[in-house]
Amino acid sequence: FDVFWPSLEYKIWLKFALNTAYQYFKSSLIDEDLRFQKCVMDNHAYVETLSSYNEMTIDNMIMKFVIIVYGSVIDTKTEEPYFAPCIIPKTCEQ
User: Fold this and answer.
1) Backbone torsions φ then ψ of 67, nearest 5 degrees
2) Rounded distance between C-alpha atoms, residue 68 and residue 45, angstroms
3) What is the pLDDT along the chain (94 residues), one digit of tens a residue?
4) What is the DSSP string of 40-67?
5) Residue 45 · residue 34 · CB < 8 Å
6) Torsion (CA) 88, 9, 33, 71 in degrees, nearest 10
7) Disulfide engineering: 72 pairs with which of 17, 44, 65, 83, CB 3.0-4.6 Å?
8) What is the 8-class DSSP label of residue 83?
9) What global pTM score does this model have?
């Protein structure tokens, strides 16, 4: 991927994430326009790849939804686990 199409892997994960979000959370995301081209052009969706034991701060002011599409995460404050597919609750900060 890195040699011939540097952004292809990211776009594949983004497409997978948008499809997963729409498939599992259609009722929660009914007002959101999650078409792949629109999300890519407008930067409305972002895929973050985290390896084991990384922390990510969730800024609820700029992020409307945080969705796990593959793997699992743990809320650092409550130590509650979340497994994909899952929408992370707004109370989770990291």
Assistant:
1) -120, 130
2) 13
3) 677 777 888 888 888 888 887 777 777 766 666 665 666 666 667 777 777 777 778 877 777 788 888 888 888 888 899 998 888 888 888 7
4) HHHT--------TT------TTT-S--E
5) yes
6) -20
7) 83
8) E
9) 0.66
